[in-house]
Amino acid sequence: MYECYNRKLLRINLTDRTVREEPISEKMIQHWVGGMGFGVKLLTHEVPPTIDAFDPENKIFICIGPLTGTIAPLFAQTCIVTKSPLTTGIINTYAGGQIATAIKSTGYDVIVFEGKADQLIYVTLTPAGVKFVDCPELKGKPVREAEEYVKTTSGYDNMHTIGIGLAGENLIRYAAAISETRAFGRGGAGAVFGSKNLKVFGVVGLNDVKVANPKGFEEAIERTYTAFREDLSHPWSLLGGFGRIGTGSGVALINDKHVFATRYHKYTSFQHANEIDGEAFMRKYETRPIGCQSCLVHCGMVRKPLETKWGTIWTRGPEYETMYSIGSLCFNDNSDMLYYANDQAEKYGMDTLSLGVNVAFAMECVDRGILSKDALGEGYTLEFGNPDATVRLIDMIAAREGIGDLLAEGVKRASEKLNQGSQDFALQVKGMEFAAWMPERMRGVATTFATANRGACHKRAPIGMELMEFVPMDSTEGRAELVAQIQNVVNATFTLVSCRFAEFVLKPAQFVDLLNNASGMSFTAEQFELMGEAIWNMERMYNLAAGIDASQDSLPEICFKVPLDFPEGYKPLTHSDFNILIKDYYEYRGWDASGTPTPERLEKLGLKG
Amino acid sequence: MAKRLVIDLNKCTECRTCELKCSFVHFQVYNSNKAGIQIISQWPEKPSARLCLQCKEPDCLPACPSEAMVFTHEGSVKILYDVCIGCGSCVDACQYDGVWIDPLNNVAVKCDTCENKYQCIADCAVGALSIEE
Questions:
Q1: Which of A21, A198, A394, B123 is the most exposed place for a label (fewest CB within 10 A)?
Q2: Is domain A443-604 annotated with CATH 2.60.40.1930?
């Protein structure tokens, strides 16, 4: 039993530079499986909900799962759980690549960073043990440079890393932790690294990854491959498009369907979308598809070095979400700028979603007379569609220079300072800036943005169902149930730790097939989904204790305004629709009218006491 | 040269499925260090790979002091893991970087073509692996 687990957790205390190893119990594995399950269980029990996210008492839980490091496709993600400086609630954030497999082979399932170093340091975990190394020379360095420095200085060319850039060091509330170009994007995990003075974490492992039932696992892998290959064989397969063109492959469809938020939600489609979408990037820039460990989708697009007017760089991406946030939302149709801004975000370590929304928010504030168009200094005009202004403002945010200091706090805090009605159009929920997609158009997206424990996040929204109009996108009918179910299932898959895209193809029973053969456990699909629901409620209880109450299950007023090109035949979102969605959602979840899980539901989920 | 595994680095996506498949076929565990093929990333450029050329007159085999390397019926060199002492003589002898040491079990590792079954090929999502006669 449990062969696919290391069954050990490593605590790395940055204050006194000590380490402590702890066993992971059988009960912990059976209840919470791994990944997000472990992270949420540990954080909610160890980090007081009312402390500041930058308090040294906050912790960073880096978690992998039972399928990490195996050949199972689309399980190469690492999950970081911490208390978010952006939402003040619990956050789980993910990145792919090779780091998860490296962590698995160190012999640990969870790495916990605790305390705060007295100066900037990097930490390495290798066969030689844990090393704490002061690194004042890395202060302000771009992530990629810092990662390379640690690899070279440590003498391990097979080291994998997670690092932060200037944004993390400067406590930008949406700073990302970056692992070899891939971002733990949402929620400001990079700023928590920064608050602990942790610049880079480097990992080298040698250990084997085993499974309980090798023959059964091989057969389960074959079934999994068959499912993916069947999906990928269709010319219209979404994942197939991701593999050919990247995650920006769907922009044309999204734009046609009028759900591509443009010029700060003034429009639902962008006239110049075809200048910045996946096809445009393939057409304009030499590109190579890259896969995470064991992935057959290979959606990561590495571009050849490019000379832009701002400098010569290379980048991996941009992803679809960046095409929205720094692209259409800012009314930018300049793909060179998007290429460059994507690299800026990686270099500084920033979530491109929150970053783009903050840039667009500043532009909107100028339109509404709240900020001056000269706020960027001489030679720049802060306005929609201005690529120079976008690049300049990103630099200013990372450095907390001028209005960059205000926007480094995120649109919630910035709008509270600016006032003048700006809270009504600050695109955020619970402090988290909007992901792509439009609550004005899609009721499932409206419900998800309002209720997600991470804030306005799209990661657990029924987007495919609504986009393809398998359900009418403007109907409240059954929508709350659909959202809650997908939230539960995705939470469950994040215990493994799955890529978000796996759920596009695999059903809960197929995830469980892999889990059971790898671990020797005997989960049913129902138990698996129930665990996802339990995790959701555990997060919810923590957020309530952190002061995030039902009043924050809301959307900004701008979502109830009708965009100028709102398509005919569809109903825009109204307050009464929204109230129905939230009421239905609470009822389906077994929560009372104040959005608090009832004792009965908690008992059913095994969370009482 | 005997038949051998070759990789098209223009197609490779660096997912390393081949590495894990190889370690599983040979050792029933997943561990890239135990794989007879190694993909080396060098972004933004395409990767390089370490892979045995299956020389007809290999330098590695005669260099082995413990007779842990033998020819298979198919003409490729195979390592007897129980016999190998991990001394690295074969690594030093090979001019093509086609053999290396698994640091965990301290044994030499290389591609032995799975007795001509080349089990990694079927799992490559982009068809980057093939057999060269």
A1: A21
A2: no
